[in-house]
Write the structure tokens for this entry.
Amino acid sequence: MADRPAFVYVTFIQATPERVWHALTDADVTAEYWAEHCNVSDWQVGSAWEHRRTDGSGIVDLVGTVLETLPPKRLVITRAGPNEERPGGPGRITFDIEPHGDIVRLTVTHENLTDHDEHVSVSAGWPSVLANLKTLLETGHVLPQGPWEMYAEMRAARMALNDPK
């Protein structure tokens, strides 16, 4: 995995490690800060997890396996699309939760990305999702707009500028 792109994001949250762990592993809470998805699993080593749409369709957009679980300190999962054959194997996401007084340092490491395009995608996605998570835990509600919408608008504007028409 060393020769494949990776992404690391660190944020600090005013919460206990237990609250952060709960927010990462409770399907109802994940539905709040992921907006249109929830993460579903029993979070035991070897178990499957699903990134399932919350619109009632039951559609699963991402799947993986729980590789390591050490509540409330560390969670490691694999990640890929359903039925996706990735030449280098699935992505690997590690959540490290470190307490410091009244705050937590949450480090998300997303390894084994397929290419530059996936790196660009997760580089926009993780900060947006984690900003929503942080806001939810600190204020009781998510951000008033989905932060990922800003990235989509900026990307569309950049593409329009580069359009030779």
User: Anything to note?
Assistant: Residues 84 and 141 are 34 Å apart (CA to CA).
